[in-house]
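[Discussion] Sanity-checking designs against the backbone

I'm trying to build intuition for which residues belong where. Below is a structure token string of 395 positions. I'd appreciate it if someone posts a full sequence so I can compare it with mine line by line.
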């Protein structure tokens, strides 16, 4: 007999999406399921050179323990990029994290006591729900429309539920791809300031805009400055295997997150940070991002061009201006999980929307990622999906 696992270990289920990813990892499957960046677009040569340079310049430093806050040159480079995008930021405002996923865990550990209320978009990023669930939070969905959070509904909810924080992905949201308009960001910041609420703005996709104008971060709106944790990541603009992200937060919250990070992993890999800093100093990250954007725009368009044929008649979907995801809804009487079973049988996959929901899920929704495959493969995948849809007309 052994003592039981902690309650939180059994309260939160594993990710059904990771299970689907395991199913679709076999060769030959064209998967719209995972949010995987296009591997052939990784700047492998540039990154290899950056690792070489990090070792050559200071091998012992690259291999040594380092500070929890992160390598000064990496923080300076990220601060300069953040400032250039309209949010004045000093290196000391930042904490380097092991992916932005860790920033989420640290913020949760710094802010959320068991029983605290956390507001989220519905649907939202599954691993954020897991992080809040592990902390014993009461997760409450904010009513949203096709453009994200409805400020009036948010205000009422905040008055009623007295939440500690709002977690939001305002730009090219995961899973819906939708973007919160600037005016609503201003309203959300105002509500947070008036009602006393932390804001967690998760932005791994904002740099992947294919068209339209950049919208200032929620963190840049009046009222948000002293209460927003802004999370950034190199995963979608450089490579997710680096596991490099960052957190920009007011001093007290940043210090609490740094203490939580000491308990979690002491610091993020020194060599990875130094290589990224070399890359930022010597390569042209913006030129690389421009190449990725161009490729992703073409892939989004290939997906959108074929969806009408691939999904059952009267399905609907959106047209995001960037990011990695399209969100679709099957017609009345259809179920995305049942369609997925037929799809996997035809060597194509997507993710049903249900697991991303808090409370009652919408079983007709699904998320399609358009970044992993080339346009010809996307078209082949859609042909297979059409076969799966027609063979499975009603569920
Ligand atoms: N937030 C959101 C909304 C995401 O979609 C992801 C990755 N899929 C992450 C955070 C975590 O990204 P990473 O840890 O690779 O930076």
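Best answer:
Here's mine. Compare freely.
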């Amino acid at each position: 007999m052994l003592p039981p696992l902690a309650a939180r270990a059994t309260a939160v289920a594993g990710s059904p999406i990771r299970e689907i990813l395991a199913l679709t990892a076999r060769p030959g499957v064209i998967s719209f399921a995972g949010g995987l960046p296009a591997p052939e677009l990784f700047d492998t040569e540039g990154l290899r050179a950056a690792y070489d340079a990090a070792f050559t310049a200071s091998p012992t430093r690259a291999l040594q323990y380092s500070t929890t806050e992160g390598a000064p040159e990496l923080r300076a480079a990220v601060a300069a990029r953040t400032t250039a995008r309209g949010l004045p930021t000093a290196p000391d405002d930042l904490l380097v994290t092991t992916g932005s996923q860790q920033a989420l865990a640290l913020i949760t550990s710094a802010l959320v006591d068991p029983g605290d209320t956390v507001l989220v978009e519905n649907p939202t990023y599954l691993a954020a729900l897991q992080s809040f669930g592990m902390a014993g939070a009461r997760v409450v969905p904010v009513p949203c429309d096709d453009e994200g959070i409805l400020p009036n509904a948010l205000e009422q909810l905040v008055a009623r539920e007295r939440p500690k924080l709002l977690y939001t992905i305002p730009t090219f949201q995961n899973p819906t791809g939708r973007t919160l308009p600037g005016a609503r960001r201003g309203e959300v910041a105002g509500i947070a300031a008036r009602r006393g609420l932390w804001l967690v703005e998760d932005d791994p996709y904002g740099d992947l805009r294919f068209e339209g104008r950049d919208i200032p971060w929620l963190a840049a709106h009046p009222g948000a400055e002293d209460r927003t944790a802004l999370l950034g990541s190199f995963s979608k603009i450089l490579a997710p295997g680096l596991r490099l992200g960052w957190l920009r937060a007011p001093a007290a919250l940043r210090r609490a997150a740094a203490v939580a990070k000491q308990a979690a992993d002491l610091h993020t890999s020194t060599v990875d940070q130094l290589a990224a800093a070399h890359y930022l100093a010597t390569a042209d990250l913006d030129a690389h991002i421009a190449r990725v954007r161009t490729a992703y725009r073409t892939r989004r368009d290939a997906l959108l061009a074929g969806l009408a044929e691939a999904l059952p008649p009267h399905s609907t979907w959106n047209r995001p201006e960037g990011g990695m995801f399209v969100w679709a809804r099957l017609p009345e009487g259809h179920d995305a999980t049942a369609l997925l079973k037929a799809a996997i049988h035809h060597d194509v996959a997507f993710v049903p929307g249900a697991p991303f929901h808090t409370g009652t899920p919408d079983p007709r929704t699904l998320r399609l990622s358009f970044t992993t495959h080339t346009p010809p493969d996307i078209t082949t995948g859609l042909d297979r999906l059409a076969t799966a849809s027609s063979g499975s007309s009603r569920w």
